Structures
1.
Amino acid sequence: MEQKDLSLHLENRRSQLREAKKKGTKIVGYFPGNYIPEEIVYASGAVPICLSSVSSQHANAALDEVPDIICPFARAQIGQRLLKTDEYYSMIDMLIAPVTCVHIKKTAEIWEYHGDIEIFKLGVPHQNDTDFGLEYYIGRLRVLKDRLQDLTGNTMTDKKLSEAIDLYNRTRELLSNIALLRRASHPPITATDFIKLNHASFCADPAFYVDTLSVVYRQLKAKQPSGNTDGPRLLLIGPNISHGDYSIIELVESAGGSIVAEEIFEGMRCYSQNIENNGDLMRSLAIGYLRNRIPSALITNSAETRFKYAMKLIKDYNINGVIWYQLANCEVYDAESYFFSKRMNEFNIPMIVLESDYGTTGLGQMRLRIEALIEQIKEA
């Protein structure tokens, strides 16, 4: 079994899910951000699918519904629902939307207005270090569990939930192990391939994905260094890197740079820590998904924590520079980019801020700025 088996699996995944739906299996979609414990969906007997496909076409299609001050990722999710060009978006029986920001909240409301499926809005506390916030989040997860049991007609036992946690812990461990291989002077996997491998976890069958990932990890671990990878090593930070949004990675690689680590809020699975699989499992999931993780910029007083984590990545991965990649109208990350720029400058770490709306008009300017960053690092 090799990575090509995963590609074939993904090609056939929609047809597999169509057959599963005929037999009564429910498909549950959710928006990314790593606040929706997939374990709960999986343990209910439903199939979880992370909806994170983006394009300028879909972002622009939403402009009849919302103004362009809504971020392009949120607009792309509205556009996907309106245009129905991706079958994943039209086959789901329920959508779970984490209420992380006003953009995603509005997206869920538009879906609710246009659709005939249940939309479950999962409130996400913006204070992750308080007992009140944790208890609120646990309470919402318990309500979600009840809704999923009603949807599927299945009882979610602790045994099923524990098995799901084991499976997803294995996914996180393997992604973490593969990420650690990128610390090498000649990483055995490119940023493009690593991110696409991560994205595959959002729609592949979880058990099949783990088996495939195990083989991929063994192959990468045994891979001999090859090619010229002596260019600058870069850290990518930002709110979102979704399925279909690979231009930034390709621009860096074509300019001779190498992204060897990412700190991304949405669009990539968190894999840096596992979930405790004992005691009150719903509480364990809440602690793991809300408290014991690197917080996003949406979490109150999170900037210093995230900066320290970025500095750890810079040290551990021998990184030479930082690319801050944000989406247009993502006001929280836009504001935080100023803090990061100032702090990186204090440590003499080159950093540039790039912004995207998924269009092609700004790619030329991005290319020039990336090339300038790489030249600056080489000349240092």
2.
Amino acid sequence: MSKLNICFIGDGGVSDAIRLRLSAEKLMENDKIAGSFVDLSRFRESELGFVSWDQLWESGDSAFKKASMSVVTRPVHAELIGGLRDKYGHKVVADVDDDFHSIPQSHVGYRAVGPGNQDFLERHRVSLRMADLVTTTTPELATRLRADPIKVKSEKIRIVPNGWGDSKWWGMKYRRNTINIGWGGTITHRADFLLCLDALVEITKKYAYAKIVVAADPEIYRMLKQVKEEQKMFLPMVRYEDYPHTLTYYDILIAPLENTRFNNAKSDIKLVDAGAAKIPFVASNVPVYETGFWEGGGYYVHGKSEWFDALESLVLYDTTRQEMGLIAGHHAKARHMNVLSEDWLEIYREVS
């Protein structure tokens, strides 16, 4: 079987790294495919996502001509998929990892990529329907893609969960005399963080050696105004390939998530991070996390008292923390790109 040449096209966001690059780079490293990467954000003419197509086709012509297939993450451009097909004869795989149609009005993305921007949603729908195959992260999201308003045919949908790749930093940490409780994420998770805020304040008041580490969003760090300066730390946002180093500062990973329709179509990537880092998690007891896959690798919690009790158990007992971290690490092996990249390769061969 000849080696596939694939063009991976992203929008410059975190999903590019997790959904495109991790698997593609592993497959190229193992000489299973040839590939190239194109970042659509280089060709944007406005914040609304409109693209200078002449510049894109001219700049990407060499890569597009070599490839026979394209993989596009979070597609919103029929012009892109149509051009790849008509100009270059490509088969197109479209990957989607969020239910944009369910973004609530209170969410920061509502007017940009949610129901507050019907033009975006319509372009997204059309793009998914045009693709030869659609990949996604969870069974729940696949179900929604088949239903109104998107209506992607069942035979066109494949599920590949999120995973993790190689880094010397996974499972490592610096020596310290504190127990660090870590959170990291974008500005889209501020409402989620409020679920555990009171428990974090309480745990730092009761245990002077407990420390909160917030990565990426300075506004969430500012929510910790009741926590002493010496018991909190802020880490700036980094490129995804540097993210495993951020987790070396964590002893416990927290994953608060509101029980909303939008959140319940998300993936369990936060628990993947905990497992890859071999640390226990405390996560909201919502369907996206409570699947049974991560059993024993951490605690699932509901209200404030359960958040505090779970955190206290992990802060107090080194053995519990270490045992749960090892269990989470064991589960995470099934999500490493050594495994998942083969699932991606099977999909690419199916489309070709």
